[in-house]
Each structure stands twice: as C-alpha cells, then as structure tokens.
C-alpha cells in the first residue's frame, strides 16, 4: 500500500433534468491507491452517480475529477480509459447472452488486441479463480445469478484494472451467495493491490471496508 491518491475529486456537481435534480452537490473526495472503500447512503443519495463519474460513464457539470492520472473533465472519449483502468461489477452484469462464459470474459481483451492463446489462458485462469472453470462453454442464461456475477467479476479483472467499481454486486443474491461474491472481491483487493470501491446497502459488507463514505442528498456527510 502507498500514499498515492488514485482518485481526486473537488467540488463535483452533477444535475439532471435541467438542474431540477441535483444528484451530486459538491463532492470532495480523495481515495488512495489500494484502498477498499464502501459507499453507503439512502436510495437516491447519489451513490451510483458518483460511481459513474469515477468510471467515466458519465460526465460531471462542474468541479474536478482525476482518476488514475486522467482528467475526466476534459472533453474527450474515455473508452480507452475505461478499458484499461476500470473493472465494472454492477448488479446488472451486462453479460452478452449469445456468447459463452469463456467468450464473455475474453471480450475486453479482444479490444486490446491480445493474442488468442494468451487470451484463452487468462480467461480460463480467472474463471478458475471464481470456481467456474467447469462452465466455460455455458451460455450466461443457463447460470444462476451468483454464477453470472462471478463471470462478471472475472471479466472485470481480465485487463488488470487499477480500480474495481462495484454497484450493489450482492443486491440480487441470497445472503450465502452474497457472502461468496463479497469475499471474492475482498480477496482480489488484497492479492492484486487493486483499489476497490463498493456501493452497498448491506451494513455487514460496509464494515469490512478500510473506509466508509456516507452520502446524503448528493453530499458526503462524514
Ligand atoms: N439519468 C438520470 N436522469 C434523471 N435523474 C437521474 C438520472 N440518474 C440519476 N438520477 C437522479 O439522481 C439522484 C441520484 O441517483 P443515484 O442513482 O445516484 O442514487 P443512488 O444513491 O445510487 O440510489 P439507489 O440506492 O436507489 O441505487 C436520484 O434522485 C435520481 O433519481
Ligand atoms: Mg444506485
């Protein structure tokens, strides 16, 4: 672990519907590389919006946000940033339904032009680490919710991201499968020194983080 800020956010504002809805109302936040941070707060408090800003899935209206050295307020395309720096594990895992488990995990590597044999090996290694190497040729529709979430985790890790953004990864799962997913994310965080940012409603999940950020009405309140 080191003291480098991988995320620096100053006075970040994001509103919707012509400023009628202020989703983020002046966020100031610094996150150190390798930290495990849990974001808590009531529904509508801005958690997903903040995660979307960090992952460059959406753009803020005002303020500053720098992630892994990239200024996200610049007017440019951030698809390469997302592909190289960020692993997304969301509740709706967006697996491609007509591709097998193995192919789904390989997809981000295709975009990076990684050689076929290397790609296959890395995908299988990751699927083994989430205990799904016996389901390689299965379609995602044939898997349980927890199994799909594990495929999504393998896919998120395939490009060695520096940050994993995870929005309610256990929300659709029973508590036993939720525990498995959470432990998997924690293990990855520990082993790979990846920065883990997790949005969750589950109190016990938040308790295992290095740091808890509480949001309310588009602000951080702690
Ligand atoms: N695309 C959008 N258009 C309009 N309003 C939006 C949009 N996305 C989010 N909002 C609004 O911004 C506010 C913050 O939403 P956000 O999704 O960040 O909340 P959240 O904390 O993730 O809530 P939850 O716990 O229910 O997922 C809410 O009032 C929401 O209705
Ligand atoms: Mg949300």
What does this 3D model show about the protein?
The protein starts with a strand and ends with a strand. It has 7 helices and 10 strands. The strands form 2 sheets. The protein has a 6-stranded mixed β-sheet, sandwiched between helices. The protein has a 4-stranded antiparallel β-sheet with strand order 2-1-4-5, covered by helices on one side. Helix content is 35%, strand content 27%. It binds adenosine-5'-triphosphate and magnesium ion (MG). Magnesium ion binds at residues 47-48, 167.
Heterogens: adenosine-5'-triphosphate, magnesium ion
Q: Based on CA inertia axes, which overall geometry fits?
A: globular
Q: What is the CATH first-level class name?
A: Alpha Beta
* Portion in helices: 25-40%
Question: How are the secondary structure elements laid out?
Answer:
Elements: E1 5-16, E2 21-32, E3 36-40, H1 47-54, E4 62-67, E5 70-71, H2 79-85, E6 86-90, H3 101-112, H4 116-129, H5 145-157, E7 163-167, H6 175-192, E8 195-199, H7 203-207, E9 211-216, E10 219-220
Parallel strand pairs: 3-8, 3-9, 6-7, 7-8
Antiparallel strand pairs: 1-2, 1-4, 4-5, 9-10
In short:
The chain has helices at residues 47-54, 79-85, 101-112, 116-129, 145-157, 175-192, 203-207; strands spanning 5-16, 21-32, 36-40, 62-67, 70-71, 86-90, 163-167, 195-199, 211-216, 219-220.
Key traits:
222 residues; alpha/beta; 10 strands; Rossmann fold; binds magnesium ion; 35% helix; binds adenosine-5'-triphosphate; 7 helices; 4-stranded antiparallel β-sheet
């Amino acid at each position: 672990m080191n003291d480098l800020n991988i995320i620096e956010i100053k006075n970040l504002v994001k509103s919707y519907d012509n400023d009628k809805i202020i989703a983020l109302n002046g966020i100031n936040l610094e996150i150190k590389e390798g930290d495990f941070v849990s974001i808590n707060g009531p529904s509508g408090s801005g958690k997903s919006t903040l995660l979307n800003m960090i992952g460059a899935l959406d753009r803020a209206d005002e303020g500053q946000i720098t992630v892994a050295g990239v200024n996200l307020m610049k007017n440019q395309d951030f698809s390469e940033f997302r592909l190289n720096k960020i692993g997304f594990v969301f509740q709706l895992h967006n697996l491609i339904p007509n591709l097998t488990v193995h192919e789904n995990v390989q997809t981000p590597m295709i975009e990076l032009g990684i050689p076929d044999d290397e790609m296959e090996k890395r995908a299988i290694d990751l699927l083994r680490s989430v205990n799904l190497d016996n389901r390689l040729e299965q379609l995602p529709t044939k898997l349980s919710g927890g199994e799909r979430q594990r495929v999504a985790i393998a896919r998120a890790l395939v490009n060695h991201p520096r940050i994993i953004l995870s929005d309610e990864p256990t929300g659709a799962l029973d508590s036993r499968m939720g525990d498995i997913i959470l432990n998997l994310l924690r293990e990855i965080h520990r082993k790979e020194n990846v920065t883990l940012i997790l949005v969750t409603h589950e109190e016990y999940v938040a308790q295992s983080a290095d740091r808890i950020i509480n949001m309310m009405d588009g602000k951080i309140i702690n």
